[in-house]
Amino acid sequence: MWGDNNRGFNRSDIWAFKVRVQFYNFEDPEWVVLRRILERKIGDLEIVFIRVGVEFLKDLSTLKRLKGKKRVVILESAYERFPLRKVGLWGRLKYIVLDLIFKEKADLYFVGSDGSGGDVLAEKFKVNYSILPPSRFILSRGNKVFAREKLNVPLNGIYVGYAGYPTEEFGFDLLGKIYLLSGKTFKLLLYPFGGRDKFINFAKNFKEGVFVVDSFEDFLSAIDIAMFPYRFGGNSSLTITLLSLGIPIVSFVGHSADMVIKNGWNGFLVDNFDVKTLAEKLRVLSTNPILMDNLAQNCKGFPGGFITVEENANFIIQEVSLL
Questions:
Q1: In which element (H, E) is residue 11 found?
Q2: Distance of CA 323 to the CA centre of its chain
Q3: What is the DSSP track for 59-110?
Q4: Which of 68, 169, 75, 92 lies closest to 130, judged by CA?
Q5: pTM for this one?
Q6: Rounded CA gap, 68 and 106, in Å?
Q7: Residue 108 and residue 151: Cα distance in Å, rounded?
Q8: pLDDT per residue over 84-108, tens digit each?
Q9: What is the spatial distance between Cα 290 and Cα 260, in angstroms, rounded to a whole number?
Q10: pLDDT score of 5 more than 60
Q11: Which residues contact 218 (CB under 8 A, 6 or more apart)?
């Protein structure tokens, strides 16, 4: 029973009062789960977590605004390994902002173990950092047929998935060329991170062979293979998500793909800009169900293994407790 001194409050009020930890950019499903675990375990600490994802400038602004508080930065990917610094305005701007994020000297940086270069930048700017092991995606793959029914796409055939957005370095011309050079031996399923209308207009050029969807969960369940035709870098966290679900990947080497994709074992790596070979690898994999199944099984044996979200949270708590 609560005593008189607590009259007017309930347990949820007091819990809400105790929670001082703050989170920024934790809206994606797996990050929401991680946030809830961290809130439950260290909710009464005065600390802020800033996840650095796609919008580097927005994340930098948040980091600067919170100066004076104990700040922990989680970087999904960095782009140090592949020389984007000299490639176009987009590449230079990304690097400038990424440098500034490290120059802010947060109390602790978590960088990925995907080889994308976060540790290189952390060493360069002499900040306190820890390498975060890859975690298994929180969702499992659903029934393939049911997912395709929900997405309103043909039920039969092999589907290759592409999740991304057009940039200065990656255009729809590249995506269309790959699909044509492959001989259209598969259906192409697109999940746009931005520019959805552009994707829809692109898909209209191929009638019943290319489809745009708006459910990431069903997208993951519906595809058999994924491709990463990024000319300059890629999305390391998404690569690991796909592999953890048993989806083989055909990719350009990019900035770190060779750290998570083992050529011929859980996917295929192709030299950057070699569109013809990437299309050929997609054709071979999509027409060889035994090879496709073998690579899918190997995906789950990712070197070093995948940790759960709970283990991820415990690792973060352990490192934060040392601050």
A1: helix 11-18
A2: 27
A3: HHHHHHHTBTB-EEEEES---TTTTGGGSHHHHHHHHHHHHHHHHT--SEEE
A4: 75
A5: 0.75
A6: 10
A7: 41
A8: 676 666 667 888 899 999 999 999 9
A9: 22
A10: no
A11: 142, 147, 150, 151
Q: Which residues pair with 154 in a beta bridge?
A: none
Max CA pair span of the chain: 77
How would you write 160-197 as a 3-class SS string?
Answer: EEEEECCCCCCCHHHHHHHHHHCCCCCEEEEEECCCHH
- Structure tokens, 191: 């999940």
Report the amino acid identity of residue 53: G
* 39 to 3, 16, 27, 29: CA distances (angstroms): 27, 10, 14, 15
Digit-coded pLDDT (tens) for 256-302:
788 788 899 999 999 888 999 999 999 999 999 999 999 999 987 66
Distance between CA atoms of 156 and 146, rounded to whole angstroms? 12
Which tokens go with 267?
Answer: 């996917």
Domains plus CATH for the chain?
A: 4-134+307-320 (3.40.50.2300), 144-299 (3.40.50.2000)
300, two tokens: 């789950």
Q: For position 8, what pLDDT does the model report?
A: 45
